[in-house]
Structure prediction request, 162 residues.
Amino acid sequence: MSMCIENLSNEILFEIFDYLDGYDIYKAFSNLNIRLENLLISSSLSMKIEISSNTIFDFHYKQFLKSNKHHIISFDIDSQSTLDKFMNLFIIDSLFSHLESLVLNSISTYKLLIIRFYLKSLPYLSSLSICLNNCSHDLGDIYQIIFHLSLKYFRVAVPRHP
Prediction:
């Protein structure tokens, strides 16, 4: 008996998808067949997105993000320059209606203070992990952000001063 990916149940496919980047899922499974195409537009699909300095914001990637805002539950952004590129195209706001987790690496306190207003508009945000690349502002400002959000998990990494 041969096993085909098309024979797997939706539940097993969703479990597999949970380990993959959302855009990789889209590239690998869209246009394969009607069932998988319907699965990709299913309201049950949740996507995790990793955006790195190697991410190319070409037409297809921008279209993917635009049409899948409601599927994205997690963003992991590797640097402030990557966040800047992303935010030139999109604002992390209430249109990312299912965003639960946000990881921001190597970000300045200044940039964090700018995006704090957008974070308030995310109804399901429950996890925020921040790695600061400097500490140019009072950390009290950072903690004020947290107290105004309904988070279950918060982590901040602050660079050590010599």
In short: Strands lie at 47-51, 72-77, 101-107, 127-132, 153-157.
